[in-house]
Amino acid sequence: MNYKGLLAAAAVAASTLPVQGEELSLAYFMGPRHPMNAAVFTPFAERLAELSGGELTVEMFPGGALNSVPPQQYSILLDGVADIVFALPGYTGDVFPMTNVVTLPDVCDSALDCTEALLRARDLIEQEYQARVLAVWANSPPILITRDTPVRTMEDIEGLLVRVTAVQDAPFAEAVGASAVAQPVSVINQNLTNGVIDGISIGASAIGSFNLHEPGNYLTTYFPGSGSAFVLLMNQEVYDGLSDEERAWVDEAANDELSLSGGRAFDAAAARGIEIAREAGVEIIDLTDEERARWQDAYATALEEARAEVVGGTTVGAVMDRMMGQ
Question: Pick from 38, 142, 227, 281: CA 20 to 30 A from residue 117's CA?
Fold first, then answer.
């Protein structure tokens, strides 16, 4: 067979080979048994594979396989280390001020309620990311876990060093008498165990995920704040490089139901977390209505100051009102 014949035969053979699907990498720093894998990551991957007939799939990289430092998740996405990442905007609150409005006190009172609040402001939130926002959801409002001091009143919390999720949470913790320090979730169990901090402010879902019932002896079911935000992001260049059909598959797999699934899962995980703590002998403390009103009065000025801040060409108060459906 001459040279042209060989080329023609090779072309025919190649055209009969099965089309190889594209595989997207998804990085998260928790273990594969974390509730968000079951509620968000795996459903997204399964739905995408279903819609695409296996042409577009997702490979998971859990447990920090591509990045073990949670605050750097957004950076590794921009750098192209992963195609999709799970990230906590609160770790870099100055970069995502509109997203983090959902953490302010009195915005919402459950993980699902906070997720719905984020979705009401989704068009504003998406402006903050140099990435495609696939899902945005929240956990439940924070509780307080302490090792040595039961907190029943503001007097009990006076001077305690309390871990908060992000720096924007600090003014409200300090308004009720605590000293606040922002720390990633990966270090808080050890820090409470060693007495580096006196307490942890966090959604109750973290109790089971990070064994916080082990160093904690007391759990106060209220602390100033609302839900912490979570996002599933896709590298914008990767998204733009897909065909129109492939982008449509991604968008359908990442519709609002994916976000709502995350919120519902966090509510369920929060209830489990409280029960895990109770069964472990952690004392569960509910503030009286009168005491809770004292805390709210104490942070009222800090909340008004926060509402007046300018973010993204608008104010925190305007974003907060949008989230609250006002």
Answer: 38
Residue owning tokens 């068009």: 123
Count Cα neighbours of 80 within 13 Å in the Cβ-side half-sphere: 2
Chain centre to alpha carbon of residue 38: 14
pTM (predicted TM-score)? 0.88
Would you list the domain boundaries of the chain? 22-140+227-269, 142-226+290-313
d(C-alpha 22, C-alpha 242), whole Å:
10
* 293-296-301 Cα angle (round to 5): 140
Tell me the pLDDT of the chain (326 aa) as tens digits.
443 343 344 333 333 333 346 999 999 999 999 989 999 999 999 999 999 999 999 999 999 999 999 999 999 999 999 999 999 998 888 899 999 999 999 999 999 999 999 999 999 999 999 999 999 999 999 999 999 999 999 999 999 999 998 888 999 999 999 999 999 888 999 999 999 999 999 999 999 989 999 999 999 999 999 999 999 999 999 999 999 999 999 999 999 999 999 999 999 999 999 999 999 999 999 999 999 999 999 999 999 999 999 998 999 999 999 999 99
Residue range 22-140+227-269, CATH number: 3.40.190.170
Question: Rounded to the nearest 5 degrees, what angle is found at the Cα of 319, between the Cα atoms of 85 and 89?
Answer: 20
CATH no., domain 142-226+290-313: 3.40.190.170
| 22-140+227-269 and 142-226+290-313 share one fold | yes
Cβ–Cβ < 8 Å for 65, 279: no
